[in-house]
Amino acid sequence: MPRLSRSVPPVLCAILIVYAGSAHALGPPTPASALEIVIKWAPLLLGGFAFNILISLLAMALGTLAGFGLGLLLISEQVLARRAAWSVMQFFRNAPWLVLLFFAMFLIPFRITVMGVTIPLPDWVKAVIGFALPVMANVAEILRGAVASIPSTQWEAAESLALSRRQTVWLVILPQCFKRMLPSWMNLYALITMATVQASIVGVSEMLTITAQVHAAEGGRTDLFAPLYGFALLCFFLYCYPIDYMTARLERRFNVR
Amino acid sequence: MSGDSVVAPKLAAPIVQLIDVRKTFGAVPVLNGISFDVAKGEVVCIIGPSGSGKSTLIRCINALLPVTSGTIRVADIEVGDPRLDKLALRRKVGMVFQQYNLFPHRTALQNVMMAPLHVLKQDRIEVEARARALLAKVQLAGKEDTYPGELSGGQQQRVAIARSLAMRPEVMLFDEVTAALDPETVKEVLVTIHELADEGMTCLLVTHEMGFAREVADHIYFTDKGVIVEHGPPQEFFTAARDERTRRFLSQVL
Ligand SMILES: Nc1ncnc2c1ncn2[C@@H]1O[C@H](COP(=O)(O)OP(=O)(O)OP(=O)(O)O)[C@@H](O)[C@H]1O
Ligand SMILES: [Mg+2]
Question: pTM of the entire structure?
Answer without folding.
Answer: 0.85
